[in-house]
Design goal:
elongated, 7-stranded parallel β-sheet, alpha/beta
């Protein structure tokens, strides 16, 4: 059988969870049945070289709006590629890509929701509802995201399918190698991976560490990621005497650093569609403390595969971190159970199989119409 083309459309190929999941999904498509093509609507990004090394065709179109001229340009490109399926990711790429795919007459359009986007204005929500009428299937990465899409945005829940994110097995890195990669920090090491943005809650983490000073007078907080909150976070770091706070910036090798963490913290305060950083930390066998928010309670079983705390609560976060640091055996048990959970339920191959089934169902429905 001749492989069919599927075009994935993203805004850009930065280092975020949406982009990494899109790449992971493409890598796991069955090459006997599918030929992938990746379109970056607005710009490239740090993950472009990784995609190209993996043999994934990447095309950057430099489109920064979804006015008719941009839609028409993308539609012309889609007509040339002749995909059986267009799979869009995120709001901007979803509007531009779905409108263009409809204009180009693409047989099946699939849209992927990766977060609970609280920034959408009423006109954006109306646009999403109209686009839902031309979209064969909408995929949500968690039940929390699916609920938000139906209850807040107003999408038909019957058209939204939950497919949990999946990841490849972790890199083979020892604790000593991971510690060396971050210059052998003072123990204990509390790690947090995520963009330095208000909703990610790194400031709450620093407030929690300040509450630990009487029992844990020294250690290291490792923040992997970058963003607009960096200056504020570096200023707050001075209020935690005895502790080093290391802002490592964006690191494509973030998963290789995880074995160095005694505790991985996901302190999100506003939204967390899934919690990919939590899943990757669990896969590394690292005990996780996370906010009881969004998709995080769907992947973390409180007290068995990690600890959940109320979002925005420095005291509760400090208590949960201390419960692991004071009882290392408990941390090891949590990490072991977490790794088993990822292996059983959150592998990339499992995610890809479910997505491929959605493609086939969407195409079959088109043929039957």
């Amino acid at each position: 059988m001749t492989p069919r083309t599927v075009v994935h459309i993203v805004e850009d190929l930065g280092i975020g969870g949406l982009e990494r999941i899109a790449l992971t999904l493409i890598r796991h498509l069955d090459p006997r049945g599918w030929r992938p093509h990746l379109v970056c609507a607005a710009g490239g990004g740090l993950l472009v070289p990784e995609a190209e090394r993996g043999g994934i065709p990447v095309e950057v179109l430099d489109l920064h709006d979804y006015y008719p001229r941009s839609i028409a340009r993308l539609a012309r490109r889609l007509r040339a590629l002749r995909p059986a399926v267009v799979h869009t990711h995120g709001h901007f790429a979803g509007v531009l890509g779905r409108a263009a795919a409809w204009w180009a007459g693409v047989p099946a359009i699939v849209h992927h929701l990766h977060t609970t986007d609280t920034t959408l204005r009423p006109r954006h929500e109306r646009l999403e509802r109209w686009l839902g009428t031309i979209t064969a299937r909408i995929v949500a990465c968690s039940q929390s995201v699916a609920d938000h899409a139906s209850l807040i945005v107003g999408l038909d829940p019957a058209g939204v399918t939950v497919v949990a994110n999946g990841i490849d097995p972790p890199p083979a890195v020892s604790r000593d190698e991971a510690r060396a990669a971050i210059d052998n920090p003072d123990s204990p090491v509390i790690g947090c991976v995520g963009a330095l943005a208000p909703h990610k809650g790194q400031t709450v983490l620093l407030q929690a560490v300040k509450r630990l000073l009487s029992s844990v007078p020294r250690g290291t907080v490792v923040l992997v990621g970058d963003g607009g909150e960096r200056d504020r976070i570096e200023t707050l770091a001075g209020s935690v005497p005895g502790w080093q706070v290391r802002c490592l910036g964006t690191r494509p090798d973030a998963r290789r650093l995880l074995p160095a963490f005694d505790v991985a913290v996901v302190p999100s305060v506003d939204r967390e569609g899934f919690g990919l950083a939590a899943l990757e930390s669990m896969d590394a066998g690292c005990p996780v403390v996370a906010s009881r928010l969004g998709g995080l309670p769907e992947i973390i079983q409180d007290g068995r595969t990690g600890l959940l705390v109320p979002p925005g609560d420095p005291g509760g976060l400090a208590d949960a971190i201390a419960a692991i640091l004071d009882w290392p055996d408990r941390g090891r048990r949590l990490g072991m159970a977490a790794r088993q959970t990822v292996e059983a339920s959150y592998r990339a191959t499992r995610m890809a199989r479910r997505i491929l089934t959605i493609y086939e169902e969407a195409l079959d429905a088109r043929l039957a119409a």
